[in-house]
Amino acid sequence: MHVTSPAFKANAARALADPGLQKALGRSGPAFHAKRGRAIAALPEFQQLRDIGRDIKNHTLANLDFYLEAYAARVEAAGGRVHWCSTAEEARAAVLEICRKAGARTVTKGKSMISEELGVNEHLEANGIEPVETDLGEYILQLRKEPPSHIIGPAFHLNREDWEDTFRKSHVDLPFDRSFAQRRDILEEARVRLRARFLAADVGITGANFLIAETGSSVIVTNEGNGDLTQTLPRVHVVLASIEKVVPTLEDCTALLRLLARSATGQEFSVYTTFSTGVRRQGDLDGPEEYHVVLVDNGRSNMVGTEFQDMLRCIRCAACMNHCPVYGVTGGHAYGWVYPGPMGSVLTPSLIGVDKAGHLPNASTFCGRCESVCPVKIPLPKLMRHWREREFERHLTPPTQRRALRLWAWLAKRPEAYRLAMRMGIGALARLGRGKGAFSKLPGAGGWTEGRDLPAPEPGGTFMDRYQRQQRERRHGERRQGGNRQGGNRQGGNRA
User: Fold this and answer.
1) Model's pTM, two decimal places?
2) Where is the composition biased (Basic and acidic residues) (predicted)?
3) What's the rounded mean pLDDT across residues 383-396?
């Protein structure tokens, strides 16, 4: 997948000027907020469950090598095979080898962000194997030749008319009077087209929400059932998963599942939560003859033991991006790679380098909503600050920005000089803005005034000046009230 993260600012400007995208974002965002709010309100122990989820993931990461080896041993005991892949190239090669040995011409895929990260579809197509996306959102994006814009709602950026237009262009045999007025119409059209693909596929590829070390099981959650068809109908099932998806026990997995659906879609549980363990056994009605797990590192082990390890707790619920004011107006494509929003602003620099993704940790208001809604309490603003520090240390920030930060640091270390500079600056702006209320243009502040006015400060000094003045007035008022009470007591004593 082509990386455009270095062009985030240009990507964001195009997104802000796209009326169709703004319509889709304005419609979908509030719906996620409301559903999540209702689901959490119905679970009194949700906050306690967040602590449990955080602790499970922290314990697993502290013992990651042990649990990965335990998981691999269980997979092989159930007749499966584990492929250990350090890089994206190794993972693509492993998937291609499995498909070639199976004689595959068609591969069905359940939604998998790791496959987007690895570029699996493009690699299979380049080697004569057709991948077919079966998630409804991924299917429409494959027809449009677009990447996902959201990790749980891949077609988050599209409106109903976009779906209809794509179907009419791609499904050339559609009757002229075929209606797509309802969501069910879209679903039925995709279902008819995909049914034959499910039956013809030689290999099915899914992602994994969790890998259970205790049982050797992979777990996927879906709302469409396509994941089940992808892993049970073909002769070969391939699970693509990154190493941090492992959890110790079945009980740990169920605790995290209670967090996942509520945080992602506002459901108590997804419609389908499917556990797969090994190959088809004697007496099983369905299931694959071969079961492969492609375990991918691709830079994640480099995060273990660093200040970015907390990011590996992520369970891919997308709550952070659903509540992010930046994602809410730019959408996912502006971030320029697989993982958008706050979680992408931390994970992407870890995987492709801060030199390519340095804009992303700067694309944040630091309002803290992402951390407040994260089901496993990842301190996303703190991690973005760490990336900003790395970017500054490596001299990747623009020279003007570095000079401004050096000047601010010099002043911040000298309180008297800082207060004097603030008084002079605010006083000058207050005089210039007297009677205006706001500046539509101001030298040195073009980055702000290009898109919005800059409020003019009111006369009265800096915040600290006003605060100290109010504190003096409050103490003076308290002394006066105390004097009045004492005077009243003396008068009462005289009367007695």
Assistant:
1) 0.86
2) 466-481
3) 94
Numbers of helices and strands, H then E, in the chain: 22, 12
Residue with tokens 């000046």: 465
Is the distance from CB of 426 to CB of 461 less than 8 angstroms?
Answer: yes
> Please, where are the H alpha helices in 299-378?
319-322, 327-330, 341-352, 354-357, 369-373
Contact 53, 81 (CB under 8 A): no
Q: Work out the number of other CB atoms within 10 angstroms of the CB of residue 236.
A: 23
Rounded Cα distance between 431 and 77, Å, is 78
| DSSP category for residue 296 | E
Asked if residues 278 and 80 have their Cβ atoms less than 8 Å apart, the reply is yes
Distance, in Å, from the CA atom of 287 to the CA atom of 234, rounded to the nearest integer, reads 8
Question: May I ask the CATH architecture of the domain 43-296?
Answer: 3-Layer(aba) Sandwich (3.40)
Q: How many CA atoms lie within 13 A of 460 on its CB side?
A: 10
Q: Residue 219: what are its φ and ψ, rounded to 5°? A: -125, 130
The pLDDT-based confidence of 496 (bands split at 50, 70, 90) is very low
Rounded alpha-carbon distances, angstroms, from residue 51 to 259, 344, 348, 367 = 11, 23, 25, 22
Residue 254 is encoded by which pair of tokens? 């169920």
Task: Report the DSSP pairing between strands 246-247 and 438-439.
Answer: unpaired
H or E segment to which residue 438 belongs: strand 438-439
> For residues 155 and 183, what is the distance between their CA atoms, to the nearest angstrom?
14
pLDDT digits (tens, 9 = 90+) for 416-445: 998 888 888 888 888 888 877 888 888 878
How far apart (Å, rounded) are the C-alpha atoms in residues 172 and 403?
A: 58
Kind of pairing between the strands at 203-206 and 236-242:
parallel
152 DSSP β-pair partners: none
Do 288 and 89 meet the contact criterion of CB atoms below 8 Å apart? Answer: no
Q: What are phi and psi of 414, to 5 degrees?
A: -130, 85
- Domain spans of the chain, in order of start: 43-296, 400-455, 462-496
CA 410/CA 398 separation, integer angstroms: 19
E strand segments, 234-389: 236-242, 246-247, 272-276, 290-296
270 token code pair: 């997804």
Residue 446 CB-half CA count within 13 A:
2
Residue with the two structure tokens 């809604």: 373
Cα(161)–Cα(183) distance, rounded to whole angstroms? 11
